[in-house]
Amino acid sequence: MGTMRKVQRHILSLDGPVVTASGFNDEIAIVTHASHSLPSNDQMLEYRVLNIRYGTQTLRGHLPLTPGSSLMWFGFSEEGRLSSYDSKGVLRVFTEQFGGSWLPLFSASKEKKSEENYWVVGLNASKLICVVCSSPETFRQVTPKPVLTLLDLTFPVASSDLGAETLENEFILVNMHISQMEVVAAAGQDTTALDDQAFSLEAALDRCILRLIAACCNADKLARATELVKLLSMQKSVKGAIKLATALKLPNLPERFNSILEERLLNESKPVIAQPAVTFNGNEPAAVHLAADSKPEASDTANALVNKPSTTTTATTTTQSCKTPEPVTPLSAPKLSAPIFIKKKSQQGPKISKEAPMADKKMEEVKDRGDQKEVVEKTPPGVRPTNPFAKSASNREKTSLLDSIKKMKNEHTSKT
């Protein structure tokens, strides 16, 4: 397999003799024999669709053929739909509906004359492109240049009891096109360019349904008419059906159509109810509850601040409550390395050495007011706080002078 410019990319071995192959963009469809022919001489064929760019297989399955026929044409439509045409004149197109199925879109037995055969060239969304060959020839002639013929795609529907086979065929065909657009939208592809076409198809479908409703009313098929009204996509189309039933003076039918319209309006007017958040104990949302449980206690916060290095002056952590609960992401407390404390030698005697540890201790105040927690370090590091219970320096000097006088008197008394 290769690209359009004959760059060879992949070489594969298939599990059966190759019948034909066809390409579209980055995909190639291959038909092979799945097994030997049946005793009735019917062929057992298998198809697969490969994506050359991504090296994947997108589709694979058995290729349906009309009993007693052989494959005459196989390829893609202009929109990229996989299609096949057999010798019995049945054209089939692959669709994603029902898990992947083949829909018969054309039957030459209802279109061609007895002395004609169709050589298929291609197809689009609504037309089959072919060359009309004179019987018994089944292949087109090289010369003169053949003339292309466009034929309408029609489902081989059963005979209609309404005499409206054309309307029923149009109804099925438009429904198929809308379903294909829904599949494209469900796949996540960009459908902006198809918006106008989708609206036109919905309007055409409503017009077709209204004509079918009129045919049902004229044929006294009121239950079928009621079912068709439920398939209308626009409100003005339902109102048109009500006017039609009123004009035909059919009993109880306008009331049925009106009840269908009221029910549709009621369903469209219902507000979308938002799902409530899951709560614990009926108090607060789960996210807020979990965040509250993960908050550190005041003692843990204070311990973290005690071990904070001396370069930081003040640490404050504040959590504010909101009126409306919102998910709160808990923040883990930073890991702080404890500073190395070096015990200094006492230089002022025993009294000063006892007061030094008290001066080195940091004073902290923890304020817990409802939903706010504030930790304030009152004394900045590096500054020795004043002790209200310690004696002043002047009193300390006076006390030491009196002690020395008493000591001298005691020594003099002991000598005498």
TrEMBL record:
<feature type="domain" description="WDHD1/CFT4 helical bundle">
    <location>
        <begin position="167"/>
        <end position="265"/>
    </location>
</feature>
<dbReference type="GO" id="GO:0006261">
    <property type="term" value="P:DNA-templated DNA replication"/>
</dbReference>
<dbReference type="InterPro" id="IPR048591">
    <property type="entry name" value="WDHD1/CFT4_hel"/>
</dbReference>
<protein>
    <submittedName>
        <fullName>Minichromosome loss protein Mcl1, middle region</fullName>
    </submittedName>
</protein>
<dbReference type="InterPro" id="IPR022100">
    <property type="entry name" value="WDHD1/CFT4_beta-prop_2nd"/>
</dbReference>
<dbReference type="GO" id="GO:0043596">
    <property type="term" value="C:nuclear replication fork"/>
</dbReference>
<keyword id="KW-0539">Nucleus</keyword>
<feature type="compositionally biased region" description="Basic and acidic residues">
    <location>
        <begin position="394"/>
        <end position="416"/>
    </location>
</feature>
<keyword id="KW-0853">WD repeat</keyword>
<feature type="compositionally biased region" description="Polar residues">
    <location>
        <begin position="301"/>
        <end position="310"/>
    </location>
</feature>
<dbReference type="Pfam" id="PF12341">
    <property type="entry name" value="Mcl1_mid"/>
</dbReference>
<feature type="domain" description="WDHD1/CFT4 second beta-propeller">
    <location>
        <begin position="7"/>
        <end position="157"/>
    </location>
</feature>
<dbReference type="GO" id="GO:0000278">
    <property type="term" value="P:mitotic cell cycle"/>
</dbReference>
<dbReference type="Pfam" id="PF20946">
    <property type="entry name" value="Ctf4_C"/>
</dbReference>
<feature type="region of interest" description="Disordered">
    <location>
        <begin position="301"/>
        <end position="416"/>
    </location>
</feature>
<feature type="compositionally biased region" description="Basic and acidic residues">
    <location>
        <begin position="352"/>
        <end position="377"/>
    </location>
</feature>
<dbReference type="GO" id="GO:0006281">
    <property type="term" value="P:DNA repair"/>
</dbReference>
<dbReference type="GO" id="GO:0003682">
    <property type="term" value="F:chromatin binding"/>
</dbReference>
<keyword id="KW-0677">Repeat</keyword>
